[in-house]
What does this fold into?
Amino acid sequence: MPFRYLVVAALLLVSPAFAASPPAYIVVDADTGVVLNHREADQPWYPASLTKLMTAYLTLKALEEGRLELTSPVKVSSHALAQPPSKMGFKVGTVINVDNALKMMLVKSANDIAVAIAETVGGSEASFVEMMNAEARRLGMASTRFSNPNGLPDDGQVTTARDTAVLARAVWFDFPDYRSYFGIPAIKVGGRTLPSSNTLLERYRGTNGMKTGYICASGFNMVVTATRSGRTLIVVVLGEISSSVRGERAAGLLDQGFARRLFAGGARPQLASFAATSATGAPVNMRQFGVCSPRTEGDEEAVDRAGPRVELGPRFVLMDPVPVYTGRADPPPSGPRFTAKVPLPRLAPYHAEGAVEAAATAAD
It folds into this structure.
């Protein structure tokens, strides 16, 4: 076993929390839908801010169907502003266009903007939650139930690693024109730069999305997509003990997947049929394993991200922070219109065929 894998194993096993409750995870080949690796992928779990992937999915669907445009207004209500951090904190009545609202929700993981988007798309938060659950059923997310659009604590809001991978794959293929929204490493609001909590974006070559999440009950969750040599993998990690260990876990699983190392055993199932029946049992509650900081619940930026970096390399500059703004919205359209596409900086492709093929040969 390479030295770096031994170091990762040692770092993870020294934690009593990790020993008591290893995380759930799944690795999927995005193009084929083949499950390459998994552990407890059908275990119920609290999604935390991974919920915002569904909020984004329904918003992108409204854009594609002409019910919204990227310049359509999103207004901050008193209910949206009342959401706890992480949030933008704009005053009631502030108008943001859909383009900037999506960036704030996906990069800053702004809970207030998620509710404002939900009220815009669904007419009310309650109606939007009904849309979320209907879409989950349509996609085949058999074990997922949504209670709010931002992932803040709610005992009825649960998912699984498998279901989350189904959603991530749907986002990736159903809305290819919008993939760049999930790969922005930072946004800039006036003089403030707000970074994404997805550490892989600037520390793991080839990463191109998607989202992280944290509440006390869920632990540290992550969905990440990465492309190397034309091959895209989706990794879901639920319930890690810190943001740094979460990043290391996801990077290690990506390394294994790109090198064609398969530790799941048995035949390679398809994601669509793998654990597709509704999971039973209560969600794992990570509070008992010491990951909880009630003062910072739901706000990953306030959580200490320091930790060892073994799989993750040194930070590289992916792109400059993307400016976002309030205002700049057009009046609501009177009828369906073509959705204007606002281009974002594209992620540079990862080219390392020789290195990947060498690793694959060594693993076979």
Notes: The CA atoms of residues 24 and 40 lie 5 Å apart. DSSP finds ten helices and ten strands in the chain.
